[in-house]
Amino acid sequence: MPEIDGVPFCDGCGAEIVVAPVVKGNMMHCCEDCAEGLPCECALILEDDRQSDQGEGPIF
Is 42 a domain residue? Predict the structure, then answer.
């Protein structure tokens, strides 16, 4: 499993694993779909969340 600064990433799609990983063989995945080799939306969801947070300051 790739890991950067102690943060695990999915062996299937490359998304950051933010919950308990799904383990299949010696690989860790972000979700059951990724573990089964099916299309996964986890990376898309994380990317959307990160994009919406960029450039926004605190709201007072």
Answer: yes
Using a cut of 0.70, tell me whether the model's pTM lies above it.
Answer: no
Predicted confidence at residue 7, as pLDDT, reads 85
Q: How many CB atoms lie within 10 A of CB 40?
A: 21
Domains: count for the chain = 1
What distance in Å separates the CA atoms of residue 45 and residue 47, rounded to the nearest whole number? 5
The H or E element spanning position 3 is strand 3-4
Residue 2 carries which side chain, given as an amino acid letter?
P
In Å, how far from its chain's centre is CA 13? 8
* Residue 60 is assigned to a structural domain of this protein: no
Which residue numbers in the chain have pLDDT < 70?
A: 1-2, 44-60
Structure tokens at 59: 């709201």
